[in-house]
Amino acid sequence: MAVDLLLGLQWGDEGKGKIVDVLTKDYDIIARFQGGPNAGHTLEFDGIKHVLHTIPSGIFHDNALNVIGNGVVIDPVIFKKELENLDQFEGLDYKAKLLISRKAHLILPTHRLLDAASEASKGKAKIGSTLKGIGPTYMDKTGRNGIRVGDLELADWKDRYSALRDKHIAMIDFYDAKIDYNLEELETEFFKAIKVLKSLKFIDSEEYLYQAQKAGKSILAEGAQGSLLDIDFGTYPFVTSSNTTAAGACTGLGVAPNQIGEVFGIFKAYTTRVGSGPFPTELFDEDGETMGRVGNEFGATTGRPRRCGWLDLVALKYAVQVNGVTQLMMMKGDVLSGFDTLKVCTAYKYKGETIEHLPYNIEPENVDVVYKEMKGWQADLTGMTEASQLPSALMEYIEFLEKELQTPIKIVSVGPDRTQTILR
Ligand code: GDP
Ligand code: IMO
Ligand code: MG
Q: What are the binding positions for Mg(2+) in this chain (predicted)?
């Protein structure tokens, strides 16, 4: 059976957690393929909100197993806290439902410190990272120095840990920025968390998923971040350190490209970004403020306010193309209710020329935005359950996007709850 993918098409926080939760009833396995606790995936049901960072968003369902793939980086300390949050759910036997790839890399306390030192030393040029140690951990992975989950089963892993820690300490001293830390406390917390991690089941996930596919199990791969944060195709250097695009699911799970089935691409009806970096349709006016307030646009991991702006079709087309998206899902349509007029960016004026593709550099000094204005809608969408109830102006918006993106919009989300999901 083919493996379906679900990916964010913008700068993250599109609503991946919510939709994975909605789709899980149709899958046997949900598998996270990249990123780490920089992600914050929000699910809402029965009036309660849950934020997951490392654990796949299928964990609340009985029918599915959840795999943390080799492409993920795990901070045992954050992971332990996530598990403790799950303890409040009676009957949720996560030990039976969560499987961890031996090839996933570990975020060490000193990776977090290095992230902080690197950011602090950059001053104005900082990436705006989540300070979870993501960049330094992937650097050690590609530098072939990393410590993997499977290493915890080896006798000498603590020696390797100490050697890497000492190297990190020397590197922290290299940065100008002064970082205060108490290594002893950090390590006590870390080794406690490692014990908890070791109580879970480790697997050779590529083999596990291969056998599952052969046995006819259905698999949904869950992405983190968004295409514009991809290390290769995003707005470099203001990106994360993994491949967030479709190819990342192949390398992050060991799934062969010819085994990929549907590619679900998720986007917000507008655009948000948290952290630094260019954002051509960003709004600094009342409209942007309204989106942020109505959409409750605060980072699920860091609590930082998200920057808001109109939908950018140039960037979205690029993401659809790079990922080979087969079905789209439009989130947060309800947040746009009440605007008289909406704007959609259809082209960029780039160095005096009108272009419809994403150029090498979208810094504000190079790009002016060309907008198409569209009629807004006033109705409150949050109680709607059928596509036939959606206002005509919203249907025009949806149909315009489908035509431009040459891809059907199959889900329209009208609120954060599981039930506020309209299928088309
Ligand atoms: P993710 O990282 O892609 O999983 O997205 P986040 O959880 O970081 O951010 C999405 C936010 O929007 C969360 O607070 C969700 O509860 C919320 N959300 C998701 N879909 C909708 C929607 O259709 N309407 C509204 N108003 N909120 C939504
Ligand atoms: P989810 O999965 C939104 C952003 C950070 C920063 C940049 C690099 O919830 O959509 P990093 O900590 O990865 O080195 O930060 O990427 N970023 C995200 N923005 N949603 C996320 O994840 C993000 N993960 C990282 O804000 O700009
Ligand atoms: Mg998020």
A: 13, 40
Residue 360 one-letter amino acid: Y
Is 225 annotated for ligand binding? Answer: yes
Strand 307-309 with 271-273, pairing: antiparallel
> How many whole angstroms separate alpha carbon 350 and alpha carbon 365?
9
Q: Is the CB of 3 under 6 A from ligand 2?
A: no
Judge residue 173's burial from the number of C-beta atoms within 10 Å of its C-beta, 0-12 exposed, 13-18 middle, 19 or more buried. exposed
**Nearest C-alpha to atom 23 of ligand 2 is from which residue?**
225
Atom number in ligand 2 closest to CA 226 = 10
Is there a single domain that holds both residue 188 and residue 83? no
d(CA 151, CA 164): 14
Residues with C-beta atoms within 5 A of ion ligand 3: 13, 40, 300
> Alpha carbon of 104 to those of 5, 114, 202, 238, 323: distances in Å?
19, 20, 10, 24, 23
Q: Considering only CA atoms, which residue is closest to atom 11 of ligand 2?
A: 129
- Least distant ligand from the CA of 111: 2
Catalytic residue, from 4, 21, 41, 343: name it.
41
Query: Among residues 163, 197, 231, which one ends one of the domains?
Result: 197
13 is catalytic: yes
Structural domain of 62: 3-101+203-264
Q: Is 15 in the pocket of ligand 1 (CB under 6 A)?
A: yes
pLDDT tens for the chain, residues 1 to 424: 899 999 999 999 999 999 999 999 999 999 999 999 999 999 999 999 999 999 999 999 999 999 999 999 999 999 999 999 999 888 899 999 999 999 999 999 999 999 999 999 999 899 999 999 999 999 999 999 999 999 999 999 999 999 999 999 999 999 988 899 999 999 999 999 999 999 999 999 999 999 999 999 999 999 999 999 999 999 999 999 999 999 999 999 999 999 999 999 999 999 999 999 999 999 999 999 999 999 999 988 888 999 999 999 999 999 999 999 999 999 999 999 999 999 999 999 998 899 999 999 998 888 999 999 999 999 999 999 999 999 999 999 999 999 999 999 999 999 999 999 999 9
Looking at residue 285, its amino acid is D
- Phi-psi category of residue 383: left, alpha or beta, with phi > 0 → left and psi -120 to 50 → alpha: alpha
Please check if 319 is assigned to a binding site: no
Is 50 labeled as ligand-binding? no
**Quick check: CB of 226 below 6 Å from ligand 1?**
no
211 and 71 both lie in a single domain: yes
Shared domain for 243 and 322, answered yes or no, is no
319 and 396 co-located in one domain:
yes
The answer, yes or no, to whether any atom of ligand 1 lies below 6 A from the CB of 35, is: no
Quote the pTM value: 0.97
How far apart are the CA of 225 and the centre of ligand 1, in A? Answer: 13
